[in-house]
Design goal:
Number of strands: 0
Helix content: over 70%
Distance between the termini: 18 Å
Radius of gyration: 19 Å
Strand content: under 5%
Largest sheet: none
Structural class: mainly alpha
Shape: globular
Number of helices: 11
Order of helices and strands: HHHHHHHHHHH
Length: about 280
């Protein structure tokens, strides 16, 4: 029984990793634009979200060419591929252990999603820090290994876990809220629809709705997390004060549009690919 669970968890890991590869490649530019928006200096007068996105997009293309939109792909792949694999394998294992694969209630879905994301988030935090710094454009790291070596030498190993608190405050609620809305809306679909060829598109739309709600609720924590990880030695409380003093309350929602687009589409695609692959390998997700 235990061996079977391990094998199933490994299959869930591989399915999750595949979904992470697809979604990261497609939506990396939105993540880079979100990071640049959130790390703008307070002297820059913020405009609307749309103008901010377009301005950053044009600046990156003009100064770093089109390929600059995919800057930070190496740490993104290093984080997302094993990160989503860990998330989905933990999610699957916890669901089988505590709920025996049955349908989840709203609070059960929140707890399961938050628990799985917390495990993956803590384990992948060092790569998340490096990814954020790559995307900010403030650091001239040549590679993931080079960034790791530089941070350990100049700031100490503790820097690799900077932003732990805001990361958990962002990721655990996001995943919990997302899984709750996703599982509940998917459960409302007709059974025959889910098993037909229209099942994946229908599940994708359920994921989009869940992603929008979860992204907006956790946006302030994402802004604080980004500022802590980019600003060397900046504490969570100091980052909150800095954002508020420079940009006011609206500063906590800077980058909301690109993040909402990316997280929504990425999560929806990841879950759709994951569930499709799990069905093909003979497992119930």
């Amino acid at each position: 029984m235990e061996l079977s669970l391990v094998q199933s968890a490994l299959k869930a890991f591989l399915c999750g990793s595949l979904s992470g590869t697809c979604s990261t490649l497609l939506f990396q530019p939105l993540d880079l634009i979100k990071t640049r928006l959130q790390t703008l200096q307070g002297t820059v007068q913020p405009g609307s979200a749309r103008v901010g996105m377009v301005s950053v997009f044009l600046t990156v293309v003009r100064t770093e060419k089109l390929v600059g939109l995919w800057k930070g792909m190496s740490p993104s792949f290093a984080r997302t591929i094993p990160g989503l694999g860990l998330y989905f394998s933990t999610y699957y294992s916890l669901k089988q252990h505590f709920f025996q694969g049955r349908g989840l209630g709203p609070l059960e879905a929140v707890a399961l999603g938050a628990g799985a994301r917390s495990v993956a988030g803590v384990l992948m935090l060092p790569v998340t820090v490096i990814k954020t710094r790559f995307e900010s454009g403030r650091y001239n790291y040549s590679s993931v290994v080079g960034a790791l070596r530089s941070m350990c030498q100049t700031e100490g190993p503790r820097a690799l876990f900077s932003g732990l608190v805001p990361t958990l405050l962002r990721d655990a609620p996001f995943s919990g809220i997302y899984v709750m809305f996703y599982t509940q809306t998917k459960a409302c679909l007709p059974t025959e629809l889910g098993s037909s060829s229209y099942g994946p598109p229908a599940h994708f739309l359920c994921g989009v709705g869940a992603g929008v709600l979860a992204s907006l609720i956790t946006q302030p924590a994402d802004v604080v997390k980004t500022n802590v990880q980019v600003g060397s030695g900046l504490s969570t409380a100091a980052a909150v004060r800095q954002v508020y003093s420079q940009q006011g309350v609206q500063g906590f929602f800077r980058g909301a549009v690109p993040r909402c687009l990316r997280r929504t589409m990425m999560a929806a695609m990841a879950w759709t690919v994951y569930e499709t692959m799990m069905t093909r390998v003979g497992l119930k997700s």
